[in-house]
Amino acid sequence: MRTRVFLLSLIIAIVLFIIPPLHAQDSLSSLCESFGIQRLQEKKAALPFSLNDLDSNPVALSDFKGDPVLLFFWATWCGSCKEDIVLLKKFAEEKKGRLQILTLVIDGESERRVRRVVKKYKITLPVLLDANEKIARAYGITMVPTVFLISQEGFIEGKIAGQRAWDEPLAFTAVKQLLNLR
């Protein structure tokens, strides 16, 4: 009789304490998939870099240590990128202080062309110049736009390849869950 009670208690404990976290993980995966976030299976540290912004000031990823970061790789010749960056600008304004957003323009184009696009689309997000595409190659960029989501601890938690609807509520819900934002 004691053995049955023990086994029943053990089964109840498993159901109460192990299955709910597994379910939460499944819902996070489902949420990420719904927004097109590819979650990394292994912990991978974000590659450090330092690039100049449009004012020739160096900006390093390490400047944002302790903050979650969204890296947005784009190019001035990419129509989808320009549409996304406008939506990301609004996304950033609403999430100020909760998520750092850096844009890395990978054009081999002139800085003047980048400045024209930034002015035309009123881009207020930090624009970092990756003219030689060294950082893009290090991150394995094969298409633009591409986004990397980096945790407060500096690990790449997810990747998004292609255009997304950053103005939809699902966007922040997925990013918030993945990066454990408040």
Biggest beta-sheet profile: 6 strands, mixed
- Structural category: alpha/beta
**Total domain units:** 1
Summed up, the helix count is 6
In terms of DSSP E residues, the strand content is 15-25%
General shape? globular
Give helix and strand order, one letter per element, not per position: HHEEEEHEHEHEEH
Instruction: Give the oligomeric state of the chains in this entry, treating copies of one chain as homo and distinct chains as hetero.
Output: single chain
* Cα distance spanning the termini: 48 Å
Question: Widest sheet: strand order?
Answer: 1-8-7-4-5-6
What do the pLDDT scores average to? Answer: 86
Instruction: Report the radius of gyration as a whole number of Å.
Output: 20 Å
State the CATH superfamily name: Glutaredoxin
* CATH architecture label: 3-Layer(aba) Sandwich
CATH fold-level name? Glutaredoxin
CATH class: Alpha Beta
Quantity of strands, as a count: 8
Unreliable spans: 15-25
Helical percent range?
40-55%
Structural description of this entry:
This protein has 182 residues and is of the alpha/beta class. The protein contains six helices and eight strands. The strands form two sheets. A six-stranded mixed sheet has the order 1-8-7-4-5-6, with helices on one face. A two-stranded antiparallel ribbon has the order 2-3. The longest helix has 17 residues.
List keywords for this structure.
182 residues; alpha/beta; Glutaredoxin; six-stranded mixed sheet; two-stranded antiparallel ribbon; 6 helices; 8 strands; 41% helix; globular
